[in-house]
Amino acid sequence: MQRPKLRKKKSKTHQYWYTAANGGAYFGKVGVVSYEDARVQFAEHIRKGQVAVPAEVLTVAKLFHHFLQWVEEDRSRATYSTRKRECNSFARFVYGDRRLADIPALEVTGETLRAWRENLKGKPVAGEPSLNDREKRGLDRQSLIHAETSVRHAFNWACNNPSPASLLPVTFRPFRGVKKTKPARKKLTEENLLHDPEVDALLEAAKYDVDQFRRWGIEKHIAKHGRTGMRPAKDCFPDLLRVYHATGARTSELTAARVGDFSLRTRQILLGEHKRSQTMSDPSVRSITLGEEALATVKRLCQGRGTDEFIFMTAWGKPWTKKTANRRLTSVRRIAVALGTKVGEDVSIYDFRHLWISDQVMAKTPLLTVARMAGTSVAMIERVYGHLRSDEQQQAQERMEEARRVRRERAATQDPDAST
User: Fold this and answer.
1) What is the reported pTM?
2) CA neighbor of 255 nearest in space, from 207, 327, 318, 348
């Protein structure tokens, strides 16, 4: 009988401590887990095999249970809610007459993910009940991406966690051959951006208190009374909207900003916790640069307040959220339209970020500077907004046309009959 051995096994660019004995097992990454520690785990693995202790089968339901526990502890509440919803949907899906929650995780394949993904695209058909009708949600491409990402994340996590003995083999990648759903590429043109009259109308409409329209509704109230007697806003939403316009910050960044994050000396809002801090290997501080108007606004709001208080608060003393800020903007848009300005129907807080980045790009600010100020990558700026700066392309086109003209003139001079 061949003696069990502890070996090194390569997976992609990394090496892992591994043994094929007792069904195979991994004991951590070489260089991270020492040889001595790997030997201890290896000996324990061999001992368990000799005692013949039956291994507990890791089902999809148990895998998701461990994964969601980790997400709840290490990620935001919104991420946990999304991951839980999509993982539960995958677990309820019936594939091959079996509910995925009950099958061993190692039996999941790429075809399983494809079938679930296709089912999410459909809608229940009347008179044709199906076990998977609950999962038929008619999702668009962007929603499919979020759903698929949750499931892929769970299995990838299980292949690397917990340390040093992961829930699944490091080399187990059931979805490797399944192409990820790609987002629909949207063209961002000047027509898609907010125009100055729209911005001015929204900033003006934000000054009014939305509660005064509860009796008649916004449109009827303004049609009846006009601007006469309209009460000003009781909260700081007008200031919040102006700072969004002035800085291009993400929606969640200003709603989460606290008084202690404001630095008067550097004229910035400095955020340690932000969108990318959870995913960056070496998290950096997100800095939001304030111009003269935004600086004066934030300074006024922070004056005489505690460092733990939020800079922007509602009339009820609570912080704004992405949802409440966009809901308020919807009412502001209706006020602007009722006052006679045409504003796009789908306007959101994020449109102010699109406008700010686009204006910076068209103002010929270096893309690296734009990326740093926006808290994103140069690649993203180039991919989404790079076409708005066409100076080099225009110059290249002009040089080519000039070269053609000179060539034709030279040919006509050398051969006068060439043009006839």
Assistant:
1) 0.64
2) 318
Token pair 């509860």 is found at: 214
Question: Residue 105 and residue 361: Cα distance in Å, rounded?
Answer: 48
Answer yes or no: are the C-beta atoms of 37 and 28 closer than 8 Å.
yes
Cα-Cα-Cα-Cα torsion 400, 402, 407, 413, nearest 10 degrees, comes to 170
C-alpha–C-alpha distance, residues 333 and 341, integer Å: 9
What single-letter DSSP state applies at residue 104? Answer: B
Q: How far is CA 13 from CA 70, 160, 168, 177, in A?
A: 26, 15, 18, 19
What is the number of other CB atoms lying within 10 angstroms of the CB of residue 312? Answer: 22
Three-state DSSP at 111 gives helix
Strands 25-29 and 14-19: antiparallel
User: Half-sphere exposure of residue 25, counting CA atoms within 13 Å on the CB side?
Assistant: 20
Work out the pLDDT band at 245, boundaries 50, 70, 90: very high
Backbone phi, psi, residue 183, to 5°: -70, 150
Sheet holding 268-271, edge to edge: 262-263, 268-271, 286-289
Average per-residue pLDDT for the chain: 87
Query: Under a CB-based contact definition with an 8 Å cutoff, are residues 66 and 157 in contact?
Result: no
Give just the sign of the alpha carbon dihedral 99, 105, 110, 114. Answer: positive
Nearest alpha-carbon partner for 273 in 9, 5, 76? 76
Would you say 247 and 356 are in contact if contact means Cβ atoms under 8 Å apart? yes
- 314 CA to centre of own chain: 26
DSSP 17: E
- Of the listed ranges 23-32, 50-59, 215-224, the one predicted with least confidence: 50-59
Query: DSSP label at 45?
Result: H
Residue 135 DSSP label: G
CA distances in angstroms from 398 to 221, 391, 392, 412, listed in the order given? 56, 11, 10, 21
List, in order, residues 6 or more apart from 332 with CB less than 8 Å away: 202, 205, 206, 210, 237, 241
On whether the CB atoms of residues 109 and 101 are closer than 8 A, the answer is no
- In order, the DSSP letters of 322-381 are HHHHHHHHHHHHHHHHHTT----TT--THHHHHHHHHHHHHTT--HHHHHHHHTS-HHHH
